[in-house]
């Protein structure tokens, strides 16, 4: 379905939402807003699969992820790389609870979150 996930209604009726390689394209404020918008449209018990290049709290490790920050900023005008702790903070503020985190290829990993009532 086409649409702007900041302006158009997030399609409802889904119990799993994948947000892959999107967070790094936007500012922290926009990411929090996006996670809130998604939470507002899914039923209790839904899962969120959040995939991105999470870093350590200093934003310097893993190095490959850190080096991508400049490219993300140039590509979108507001992108960056974020730490795992930042992502967990946004999830907590937007009505999600992290269940597990699984490594993927390279510096990417998957955070699996479920709704909090
Ligand atoms: C880096 S790509 C990731 C694509 C795919 N999820 C993946 O992991 O291969 C970022 C995606 O976000 C989409 N996107 C960016 N801003 C958007 C917006 N405001 N509304 C909907 N989609 C958007 C782009 O069209 C692009 O497909």
Low-confidence stretches: none
What Rg is obtained from the alpha carbons, in whole angstroms? Answer: 14 Å
| Strand percentage | 25-35%
Oligomer: single chain
The helix content, as a percent range, equals 25-40%
Read across the widest sheet, the strand sequence of neighbours is: 1-2-6-5
Distinct ligands: S-adenosylmethionine
Largest sheet composition: 4 strands, mixed
**Structural class by sheet pairing and helices:** alpha/beta
Average residue pLDDT: 95
SSE order, one letter for each helix or strand: EHEEHEHEE
Shape: globular
Question: How would you describe this protein?
Answer:
The protein is of the alpha/beta class. The protein has a domain of 54 residues. It is 31% helix and 26% strand. It has three helices and six strands. Strands 1-2-6-5 form a four-stranded mixed sheet. A hairpin with a 5-residue loop joins strand 5 and strand 6. Helix 1 packs across helix 3. The radius of gyration is 14 Å and the shape is globular. The model has no long low-confidence stretch (mean pLDDT 95). The protein binds S-adenosylmethionine. The site of S-adenosylmethionine (SAM) has 7 residues, from loops. S-adenosylmethionine binds next to loops.
């Amino acid at each position: 379905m086409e649409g702007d996930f900041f302006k158009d209604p997030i399609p409802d009726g889904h119990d799993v939402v994948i947000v892959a390689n999107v967070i790094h394209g936007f500012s922290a404020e926009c990411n929090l807003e996006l996670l809130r918008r998604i939470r507002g449209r899914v039923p209790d018990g839904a899962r969120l699969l959040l995939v991105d290049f999470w870093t350590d709290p200093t934003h310097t490790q893993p190095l490959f992820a850190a080096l991508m920050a400049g490219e993300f900023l140039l590509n979108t005008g507001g992108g960056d790389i974020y730490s795992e702790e930042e992502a967990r903070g946004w999830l907590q503020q937007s009505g999600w609870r992290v269940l597990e985190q699984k490594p993927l290829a390279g510096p990417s990993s998957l955070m699996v979150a479920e709704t909090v009532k």
